[in-house]
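User: Quick one: structure for sequence A, then sequence B.

Assistant: Sequence A:
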Amino acid sequence: MTRRRRISTLCPEVVFDGGTAADGPTGTTLGQATRRARSQMASEAPARTRCMTGFQGTSETIVTQRLTLTGLTAQDADEMLEVLNDERLHVFTGGRPDTLIELRDRYRRFVAGPTEPGDVWLNWIVRLTHEGAAIGTVQATVSMRSDARSVANVAWVIGTAWQGRGYAGEAARALVDWLRAHGVDDVVAHVRADHQASIAVARRSGLHPTDEHIDGERVWRLIIHA
């Protein structure tokens, strides 16, 4: 899937000036309009809560130097089965690869979105730009906290055959840049202390380790808006 899908941002007054969200890690500048919008967002928490519904069920295309991130659809399950059907991808997370039926069901749930009000699921298929082949996924669950701060929990997976080439870091950094451009306040990832590859990806994405641990994983965090 290569079509570009237009979305509403967390707050439509956020202007991405000096580049597009597709610029990803190649270097994005935030212009004065964006900074003014962020200042206004800080004093308009109720409006931000209303704006957050604009994310629901949409993931616009993101383009990096080597990758194209396309919004996940239920139809992607068939192609992704070959990418994810590898026991080695579960060494750190546990479990086993999904069957085709399970993966189709999972992707249909992703597309349908969460049942919790205020939460938004965003999922992308990571593709090699020149070949169009799917090699993994990135995802973000955006939630609005009681103090009106928006927090994105992010995760990534790249198929074993494509690991070791920097694709995970490139895709994850592009995701974080996209979330930043769309007004998210904090980005969080949960990484096992012995998973050196994911630690490297978290660092490349601009996240920093904290003293928090959840279910044996360290919480990495990027505070975008203090």
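Sequence B:
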Amino acid sequence: MECSYWEGSSFDSSVGGNDMLSMTRRALVGLTIVVAGLLGLGTAVSSAAPVGVLATPTCDRSVTYSSPYGLIWVPAAPNWSVTCNMVRGNVSQAVGQLQHTMNECYPTQLQQAGVYPLVVDQNFGGNTQRGLKAVQSAIGTTVDGIYGPNTRNAMRFIDVEAWPIACRPFR
């Protein structure tokens, strides 16, 4: 599978009203996440984590990933691998992408957990952890509040090319 930065976007000028406002908001959130990552403002912060989590690198960026269902935004490690972890206490552009993905792809689960919408602040804090646990429960993975390969494999992610926003499975 191929990973790369997203280099393009499309804009439908016929969209108006609240759709335009929503599209602008989403574009600004995505742009903020990308710019912060490019400027190095999303450096990972260490946190206590289970030993198995420490063997896998920490996600610190997002990449476009070619899944069987199209191009999707996925958290990635410094070596561009999508096999990475995020735990409470991490601060990075990848955390911001995860927060944005959960807001767009799992609003019902976040509402049920009382954390919708998540603030996209790139900080894996208590609300992000509660939201991730709600998502993990819904997708049938271990509910531990840790983003890693098992959670990634079961999650849906934002389709880079779809408008309006659509969520596609990783696998």
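Strands lie at 3-4, 61-67, 70-76, 156-158, 167-169. The mean pLDDT is 80.

User: Thanks, that's what I needed.
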